[in-house]
Amino acid sequence: MLNHLNDKELDKLIMKDREFWDIRSNWSSNEKKIEHSDNLVRAFNIPIGQKVRHSKSNREYTIISLATIEANLTACVVYQSNSDGRIWVRPLIEMFEMVSIGKDMKRRFTFVD
Fold it and tell me: Where are the domains of the chain?
């Protein structure tokens, strides 16, 4: 589960993903992209049904699936609002990257116990 990763490990995964996609245009096949996305999903190991809180809005969501964007093979998280039921999709890396909230830097989403 993602909460087994400390901030340094999480930041390392995020940086590695960004570096990976920076060189993707050099590939003639999708095999490496698919392998990378699969490895990323395994590294994050997010359980379906996990509740998360959005740091800016303070709203709670439930992770309902993991997915891949067909056009570019980006690993994504599918999550549903606990307040209005709306379903959202966000690239996996963006879910847990650091964002500016006022004067602080926080993870975009955090786990809810």
Answer: 2-111
Q: Are 88 and 61 in contact (CB under 8 A)?
A: yes
Strands, E, within 2-108: which ranges?
A: 51-54, 60-68, 75-81, 87-91, 98-101, 104-107
Angle, vertex CA 12, rays to CA 55 and CA 15, nearest 5: 85
pLDDT digits (tens, 9 = 90+) for 67-81: 988 887 888 999 999
CA 95 to chain centre: 4
Q: What is the pLDDT of residues 9-31, one digit of tens each?
A: 777 777 777 666 665 555 556 77
User: Does pTM surpass 0.70?
Assistant: yes
Residue partners of 2: CB distance under 8 A and separation at least 6: 10, 44, 45, 46, 96, 111
Superfamily of domain 2-111: DUF1653-like domain (2.30.30.320)
